[in-house]
Design goal:
25 helices, alpha/beta, 5-stranded parallel beta sheet, 11% strand, elongated
C-alpha cells in the first residue's frame, strides 16, 4: 500500500506542477492555479501517509497538507462552476482552518470535543456549497468536465456524511466494517484521478478543435481577403483591428489609423453617434446606414454588425460588414425628385385646366371691373387697396347682387398672388357631401363612386387665392374642417389619413349677418372670429346713386357688343327713373333689367322692356325690405315680435297667443323678449 501511495504521490505532484506552469503562462490563472495547489498538497499528504517520512514533524506536515487541500477545494469548484460566492467560501475556509487547527491542538493536549464541532460544520457546509455549484454548472453546461467534477463532489459529500455518522453515532457503512481504513482519505486521490482524466479528454478535444480551427481560420481568412465586401474588425472602443484588402482599396489613398476609432476617421460627425451607440449597446447584431467620408466624396453604405468574443484575447470585438448602396440611394432620390416634380406639374396642370374651364364657361373675371366714383365706393376701394397685398383673410359683407365677387377679383388682381390660381366656390350651390369633397378632395374608395383620387379646391389653389361665396350657408358639420385649414393650413381629403399642408389666401363673402347666425347657432363662434379678421362692407346700389349713371352707360356699351346692337341714346327721364329706383337686387338686378331691354330694343334709343316695380308707398318712402342697412336684423326681429305682441294684447301662450302666431314655444319667446329687452309699456 505504501508503494502505491508513493506512486500516486509522484503522479499527482507532477500534475500539480504542470498545472501551475500552464496557469501562469495563460490567462486562466484562478482555476489552474487552484488545481495545481490542490494536487501538490494531496501529493504531500499521500507521501507522508506512505510511511516514507517518519520524522516528528510528519503529522504536522500531513495536517498542513490536508488543511490546504480541503480549504482550496470549495474555491476550485466555485471557479470552475462560475458560482463564486465569496462570503460562503471564506466561511467554509475558516471552518476548515479551525478544524485542522484544533486537530493540531489535539496532538499536543488530547482535547477532542471542540474539534468535532468544526469538522462537522465544515463537512456539511462544504458538501452543500459544492453540490449547489455543481448543479449550477450542470444546469448551464453538461459536458465531460462538468460530469466528472460533479462525481468528485458527490464522492466528497457521501463520505463526509459517513465521517459525521461515525463520529456521532459510531455508525459505519458496510465497507468500513470490512476494510480498516477511511475512504474519505482517498478523496484527493479520486478527485485528482478524475481531473487527470478530464485534462486528457480536454487535450484530445483541444487537439481536434485546433486542427479544425486552423482549417476554419484559413478558410475564413481567405474569405476576408478575397471578399468584395467592406469588412472591418473593431474592438469595443471602435479601434480598427483588421480591415480587408477590398476595403483598403476602396479607401483609395486614405490610410486608416489603428489607434483612432473607425467612426471618427471615416464617418460624418452627424452620424458618429450611431456607431458609439453600437459600441455601448447590448445588442449582438443589427443593421444601419451611414455615409462613408472619402477624399473623392461621400458614399452611402449599408452596414451589418456582429459582436463576438475573440478566442485568443477573450476581447469583445465588433465585425462590421458593409455594401455600397450609393447608386441605389441616388436612384431612389432621383425617383423621389421626379415624383415630387410630377406631383407639382400635375397639380399645376389641374389648376390651369380648372381655370380654363371657368374661362370657357363664362366664369372668367377678365372683363369684370369696378365702375363708379361715389364716395362710398372710393372708401371701399381704399380698404381693398390696404388689404390686397397682405395674406390676411378677408370677409366681404353686403346684400345680394352688390358685386362681392367683383371686389374679391379686385383684391386678387392687386395681390402678390395674382399670377397664381384664383379658385371660386359658391358654398350655397353645393350640398354638404359634395361641398366637402369639392373643397378638400377625396381618395379612391372613400365612398361609392369614388373610383379615382380627386384634388380639392384648397389643393388646387395652393400658393394662390380661394374665394368662398355665400359662406353664411356653410354647413355646420364641416365648419370645424374649414376652421382648421384657415388656422393651420392643414386638412385631410375624404377617406385619407395623409395630411396636406397648403398656402392659400382665402376671401369669403356673405349676404347674411354672421353675428346673428352665431346667436342662432347655425355658425360656429370660433369660425366667425377667424373669418372676421378684416371685414369689408360693400354698400348697396341705392346708397351709391351717383354711380348708377356710369354703370348704365358701361353696361349698355358691353351689351351692344355682346348682342350686336347700336343703342346710342339713353333718355334723361329713363336715367332719372333708374337713379330713383331702390334696386333691391343691386347691380345684378340693374344689369339684368338693361340686358332684357337691349335684347328687345331695335332702335338707337334705350327703352325699358318692363316697367320697374312700384316700390314707393303713398308717403314717397321706400317700402323695400332692408338687408342689414337702415335696420339691423336684430332690430327687425325686435320690431316684428313687438308688433305681434301688441296685436295679441301681450298674450304669450295659448291659442291665438304670440308664441303660436310666431311659430315658437312660449319659453323661447320669453327668452327672446328678455334678450331683446321687449317689455309691455
Amino acid at each position: 500500500m505504501d508503494g502505491f501511495l508513493l506512486f500516486i504521490s509522484g503522479i499527482t505532484f507532477s500534475v500539480g506542477i504542470i498545472s501551475l506552469f500552464f496557469a501562469w503562462r495563460g490567462d486562466k490563472r484562478y482555476k489552474d492555479t487552484l488545481f495545481g495547489f490542490l494536487a501538490i498538497s494531496s501529493a504531500l499528504y499521500y507521501l507522508i501517509q506512505s510511511g516514507e517520512t517518519q520524522s516528528s514533524t510528519a503529522p504536522i506536515l500531513g495536517l498542513f497538507s490536508a488543511t490546504v487541500f480541503f480549504s482550496l477545494f470549495p474555491w476550485y469548484i466555485a471557479y470552475y462552476a462560475h458560482y463564486v460566492k465569496k462570503t460562503y467560501l471564506w466561511s467554509i475556509t475558516i471552518m476548515a482552518i479551525g478544524f485542522f487547527s484544533l486537530f493540531l491542538l489535539e496532538l499536543f493536549t488530547g482535547i477532542t470535543d471542540v474539534k468535532m464541532v468544526f469538522s462537522h460544520l465544515f463537512y456539511i457546509s462544504a458538501s452543500v456549497y459544492c453540490l449547489i455549484a455543481s448543479f449550477h454548472w450542470l444546469k448551464n453546461k453538461v459536458n465531460f468536465s462538468s460530469i466528472f467534477h460533479a462525481i468528485g463532489v458527490l464522492y466528497f459529500a457521501v463520505f463526509s456524511i459517513e465521517e459525521i455518522l461515525v463520529d456521532r453515532f459510531d455508525f459505519k457503512f458496510l465497507w468500513r466494517t470490512n476494510f480498516d481504513y477511511n475512504l474519505l482519505d482517498f478523496f484527493p486521490m479520486i478527485f485528482v484521478f478524475l481531473k487527470i482524466v478530464t485534462v486528457v479528454n480536454d487535450l484530445i478535444l483541444k487537439s481536434k478543435f485546433e486542427k479544425s480551427n486552423v482549417t476554419f481560420r484559413r478558410n475564413w481568412q481567405n474569405y476576408l481577403n478575397n471578399s468584395n465586401l467592406l469588412i472591418v474588425d473593431l474592438d469595443e472602443k471602435g479601434h480598427i483591428q483588421y480591415i480587408n484588402p477590398y476595403f483598403l482599396g476602396y479607401l483609395n489613398n486614405s490610410t486608416p489609423e489603428k489607434h483612432a476609432p473607425f467612426h471618427l476617421q471615416f464617418i460624418s460627425e452627424k452620424e458618429q453617434p450611431l456607431f458609439t451607440e453600437i459600441y455601448n449597446s447590448s445588442e449582438i447584431r443589427g443593421e444601419l446606414q451611414s455615409n462613408l467620408i472619402l477624399p473623392e466624396g461621400q458614399k452611402s453604405i449599408y452596414w451589418s454588425f456582429l459582436k463576438f468574443t475573440d478566442a485568443e484575447s477573450e476581447r469583445e470585438d465588433i465585425l462590421l460588414t458593409g455594401i455600397d448602396i450609393t447608386s441605389e440611394k441616388m436612384a431612389e432620390k432621383k425617383i423621389k425628385e421626379v415624383n415630387e416634380e410630377l406631383e407639382i406639374l400635375n397639380q399645376k396642370l389641374e389648376s390651369e385646366n380648372f381655370q380654363l374651364h371657368q374661362s370657357l364657361s363664362g366664369e372668367d373675371f377678365a372683363n369684370e371691373k369696378l365702375i363708379g366714383e361715389s364716395e362710398e365706393l372710393r372708401y371701399v376701394l381704399s380698404k381693398v387697396e390696404d388689404i390686397a397685398k397682405s395674406n390676411v383673410t378677408v370677409l366681404l359683407e353686403g346684400e345680394t347682387g352688390v358685386g362681392k365677387e367683383v371686389f374679391a377679383t379686385e383684391i386678387y388682381q392687386n395681390s402678390e398672388r395674382r399670377f397664381n390660381p384664383f379658385i371660386k366656390v359658391n358654398c350655397a350651390a353645393l350640398p354638404t357631401p359634395l361641398l366637402e369633397s369639392e373643397l378638400f378632395g377625396y381618395e379612391k374608395g372613400a365612398f361609392t363612386g369614388a373610383d379615382k383620387n380627386k384634388k380639392g379646391r384648397f389643393l388646387l389653389a395652393d400658393k394662390g387665392t380661394l374665394f368662398l361665396d355665400e359662406i353664411g350657408e356653410f354647413p355646420m358639420e364641416i365648419q370645424p374642417k374649414l376652421l382648421r385649414v384657415l388656422q393651420e393650413g392643414e386638412f385631410e381629403p375624404l377617406g385619407s389619413e395623409r395630411t396636406y399642408k397648403v398656402d392659400v389666401r382665402v376671401i369669403l363673402a356673405t349676404n347674411k349677418d354672421l353675428a346673428y347666425e352665431v346667436e342662432k347657432g347655425t355658425f360656429r363662434s370660433d369660425l366667425y372670429y377667424r373669418v372676421n379678421v378684416f371685414p369689408i362692407t360693400i354698400p348697396p346700389l341705392r346708397k351709391r346713386k351717383g354711380d348708377i349713371r356710369l354703370l348704365v352707360r358701361s353696361f349698355v356699351n358691353e351689351l351692344n357688343n355682346k348682342y350686336k346692337k347700336d343703342i346710342q341714346e339713353i333718355p334723361g327721364s329713363l336715367m332719372e327713373e333708374l337713379e330713383n329706383y331702390p334696386w333691391p337686387g343691386n347691380v345684378r338686378e340693374l344689369k339684368n333689367v338693361l340686358e332684357r331691354s337691349v335684347i328687345t330694343s331695335n332702335e338707337s334709343t334705350l327703352k325699358l322692356t318692363d316697367h320697374l316695380p312700384d316700390l314707393l308707398n303713398s308717403n314717397g318712402k321706400n317700402h323695400h325690405k332692408n338687408f342689414g342697412n337702415e335696420q339691423s336684423l336684430v332690430e327687425v326681429e325686435r320690431s316684428h315680435i313687438y308688433g305681434v305682441l301688441q296685436d295679441c294684447d301681450w298674450k304669450i301662450s295659448g291659442e291665438n297667443g304670440a308664441a303660436q302666431i310666431l311659430g315658437m314655444p312660449a319659453s323661447t319667446l320669453r327668452s327672446k323678449m328678455k334678450k331683446l329687452d321687449i317689455k309691455r309699456t
